[in-house]
């Protein structure tokens, strides 16, 4: 709770400080924001360290009982849990900007799996993370609580029972205002520790995972290469499709309109001496065709890169989409900085496609679009309270969205059980 | 002159029909797809078919396919193909089967009504109408042809106009020279391209074909 409260305050100070562009304040704000991010990472690490501890116990138990044979039955499940947790930690750290190249999936055969280098490295990580990582995570949880508690202690001191311990560390009892105020200094000390050491602690906590969960130097990177090749091909494919779409709408749409204009003008010129009234009618039609050509051109240009992105940024563009949506749509967008234009365009199309689908198929009464910057990644979520059952194979345009997202090395998750709700989540690297 | 038109864009199709009818030409049928136009050709037996290259379903070369098929079914049918852009392979594919009664023009040429009608009549009379743009591309692509290098700039100009399908006096008019001068240039072109007067084929056609096939071979 304390952490969360401070997050909000820190955020507000941050924006105010940047506006005044006071350099000292800017430094302080940057440091505080970095500390808050570090705390978030430490707490997240705590979240995986607890299961790691349980898993460590299980692994040890399995190993010990394997000697008498019983443990062998537990081994496959224990190994699956190990790989699952390791995978989760890779995903979590990737969101915080650590690029961890995942190794090949370990073999499924028991004997091979136990002897596999990846398995051993993951087990080593569990041991370190369940102890050392857990400790750091615990500090990440307790330090901010202690900081807030001690800082505000003078305010609650008059209400506290007379013999209650005053400090977070469990020693000392304040008997006077001065003593209570000094507890507050201790709180500021904790804050300084958090700001000064927080980022380092977070890095320290992540280090074993970065070392041990990545593909070892002896494993080849063929899997990652295959993945990169596939996404690169998807990118080229998506671009080719996009270019073909543009070429087609120019040649078969706009150009035909303009040819029609010239044909009608040509006919009018021949007609003008013979039958001025008919010529006037042809000119009228030529003008209509020219206007249609302009409208087509606008549509094509907007399809390439929506100008609204340039004018109002992604946040403005998304609220524009929400305003146009037939289903009432709430937007919750917090993007402090711009992403690469192609990424923003993709985000825009993802949301546009999702809202179109919702309006067409979902029967929803409300929908929410959320966009957040997470480290150097852009995270989008579109949720509706409709009937669910959205199917990618059903030609809903989601396949195109997925390809476009994959082309940016992003990921897309769709959850749409029958009866709803439908949730679409997209995660894109900002690439700026 | 009986004409059928195939163009998938309804507005442009109407525009074309309107233009031709205003010139008191007989537009007997219009179509939006290759299939429809082949049917219309069978039913109405027109003198000329005006075909758009890109039509449904794939919007690639349906018009070319339809032209080849129509001429297979009705040898001697004059076909004028209209294209949104110059595509060499289309031109060569279309014209290597024989250039008589064939035309390949950029769509926008239709707006220059006199020239368009001229091309249409030429094609209907068994002549050729090749877009200047196509010819210009052929010359760029054929630059490495050693035989072509033997031609003087003036002879190239003459060959370009020949490839467009113009007759001698029309060429003379365009280049502002006498008919006799054009004759002289053409004889020189035939000689430099090794087109002997004993050849069975029309040497004019052979000269043009030479470039088209040459471009296709690259």
TrEMBL record, chain A:
Name all Histidine kinase/HSP90-like ATPase domain ranges: 342-432
Tell me which EC number(s) this protein carries.
2.7.13.3
- Keywords, ordered alphabetically: ATP-binding, Kinase, Membrane, Nucleotide-binding, Phosphoprotein, Transferase, Transmembrane, Transmembrane helix, Two-component regulatory system
Which CDD domains does the record associate with it? HATPase_UhpB-NarQ-NarX-like
UniProt-annotated stretches for the region Disordered:
1-22
Where do transmembrane segments lie in this chain? 28-50, 56-82, 123-147
Q: Which reaction does it catalyse?
A: ATP + protein L-histidine = ADP + protein N-phospho-L-histidine
The main enzyme category here is transferase
Gene Ontology terms for molecular function = ATP binding; phosphorelay sensor kinase activity; protein dimerization activity
Q: Does the keyword ATP-binding apply?
A: yes
InterPro entries according to UniProt: HATPase_C_sf, HATPase_dom, Put_sensor_dom, Sensor_HK_TwoCompSys, Sig_transdc_His_kin_sub3_dim/P
Give the Pfam families listed for this entry.
Answer: HATPase_c (PF02518), HisKA_3 (PF07730), Sensor (PF13796)
Cellular component aspect of the GO annotation? membrane
SUPFAM superfamilies per UniProt:
ATPase domain of HSP90 chaperone/DNA topoisomerase II/histidine kinase
Annotated coiled-coil segments of the chain: none
Stated name of the protein = histidine kinase
**What organism is recorded for this protein?**
Streptomyces naganishii JCM 4654
Automatic annotation (TrEMBL), chain B:
Q: Name the Gene3D superfamilies for this protein.
A: 3.40.50.2300
InterPro entries, per the entry: CheY-like_superfamily, Sig_transdc_resp-reg_C-effctor, Sig_transdc_resp-reg_receiver, Tscrpt_reg_LuxR_C, WalR-like
Q: What stretch or stretches form a coiled coil here?
A: none
| UniProt record, GO biological process | phosphorelay signal transduction system; regulation of DNA-templated transcription
Species annotation? Streptomyces naganishii JCM 4654
The record's section on Pfam families has:
GerE, Response_reg
- Name the keywords, alphabetized: DNA-binding, Phosphoprotein, Transcription, Transcription regulation
Q: From the UniProt record, which GO molecular function terms apply?
A: DNA binding
Q: Which residues cross the membrane?
A: none
Protein name as it appears in the record: DNA-binding response regulator
UniProt keyword Protein biosynthesis, yes or no: no
């Amino acid at each position: 709770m304390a952490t969360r409260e401070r997050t909000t305050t820190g955020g507000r100070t941050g924006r105010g400080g940047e506006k005044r562009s006071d350099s000292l304040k800017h430094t302080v704000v940057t440091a505080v924001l970095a500390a808050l991010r570090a705390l978030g990472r430490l707490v997240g690490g705590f979240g995986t360290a607890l299961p790691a501890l349980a898993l460590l116990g299980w692994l040890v138990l399995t190993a010990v009982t394997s000697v008498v044979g019983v443990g062998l039955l537990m081994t496959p499940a224990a190994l699956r849990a190990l790989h699952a947790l390791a995978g989760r930690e890779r995903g979590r750290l990737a969101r915080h900007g650590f690029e961890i190249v995942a190794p090949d999936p370990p073999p499924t055969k028991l004997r091979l799996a136990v002897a596999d280098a990846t398995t051993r490295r993951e087990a080593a990580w569990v041991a370190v993370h369940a102890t050392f990582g857990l400790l750091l995570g615990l500090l990440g949880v307790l330090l901010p609580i202690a900081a807030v508690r001690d800082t505000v202690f003078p305010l609650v001191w008059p209400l506290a029972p007379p013999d209650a311990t005053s400090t977070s560390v469990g020693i000392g009892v304040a008997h006077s205002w001065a003593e209570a105020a000094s507890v507050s200094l201790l709180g500021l000390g904790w804050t300084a520790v958090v700001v000064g050491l927080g980022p380092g602690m977070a890095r320290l906590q992540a280090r074993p995972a970065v070392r041990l969960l990545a593909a070892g130097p002896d494993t080849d990177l063929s899997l990652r290469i295959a993945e990169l090749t596939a996404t690169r091909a998807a990118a080229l494919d998506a671009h080719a499709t996009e270019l073909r779409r543009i070429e087609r709408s120019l040649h078969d749409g706009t150009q035909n309109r303009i040819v029609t204009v010239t044909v009608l003008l040509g006919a009018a010129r021949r007609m003008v001496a013979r039958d001025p009234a008919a010529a006037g009618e042809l000119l009228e039609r030529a003008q209509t065709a020219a206007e249609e050509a302009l409208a087509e051109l606008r549509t094509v240009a907007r399809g390439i890169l929506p100008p609204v992105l340039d004018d109002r940024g992604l946040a403005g563009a998304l609220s524009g989409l929400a305003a146009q949506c037939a289903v009432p749509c709430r937007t919750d967008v917090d993007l402090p900085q711009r992403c690469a234009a192609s990424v923003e365009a993709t985000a825009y199309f993802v949301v546009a496609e999702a809202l179109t689908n919702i309006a067409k198929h979902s029967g929803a009464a409300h929908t929410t679009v959320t966009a957040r910057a997470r480290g150097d990644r852009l995270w989008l979520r579109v949720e509706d309270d409709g009937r669910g059952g959205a199917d990618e194979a059903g030609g809903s345009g989601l396949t195109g969205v997925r390809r476009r997202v994959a082309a940016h090395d992003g990921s897309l998750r769709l959850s749409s059980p029958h009866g709803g709700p439908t949730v679409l989540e997209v995660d894109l690297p900002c690439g700026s | 002159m009986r004409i059928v038109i195939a163009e998938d864009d309804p507005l442009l199709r109407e525009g074309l029909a309107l233009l031709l009818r205003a010139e008191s030409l007989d537009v007997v049928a219009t179509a939006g797809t290759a299939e429809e136009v082949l049917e219309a050709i069978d039913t109405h037996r027109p003198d000329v078919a005006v075909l758009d290259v890109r039509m449904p379903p794939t919007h690639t070369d349906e018009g070319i396919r339809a032209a080849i098929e129509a001429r297979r079914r009705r040898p001697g049918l004059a076909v004028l193909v209209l294209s949104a852009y110059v595509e060499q392979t289309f031109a060569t594919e279309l014209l290597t089967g024989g250039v008589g009664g064939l035309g390949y023009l950029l769509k926008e040429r239709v707006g220059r009504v006199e020239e368009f009608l001229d091309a249409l009549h030429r094609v209907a009379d068994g002549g050729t109408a090749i877009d200047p743009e196509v010819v210009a591309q052929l010359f760029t692509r054929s630059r490495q042809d050693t035989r072509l290098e033997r031609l003087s700039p003036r002879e190239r100009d003459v060959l370009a106009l020949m490839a467009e399908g113009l007759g001698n006096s029309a060429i003379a008019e365009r280049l502002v020279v006498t008919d006799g001068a054009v004759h002289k240039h053409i004889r020189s072109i035939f000689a430099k391209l090794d087109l002997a007067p004993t050849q069975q084929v029309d040497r004019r056609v052979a000269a043009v074909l030479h470039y088209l096939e040459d471009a296709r071979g690259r």
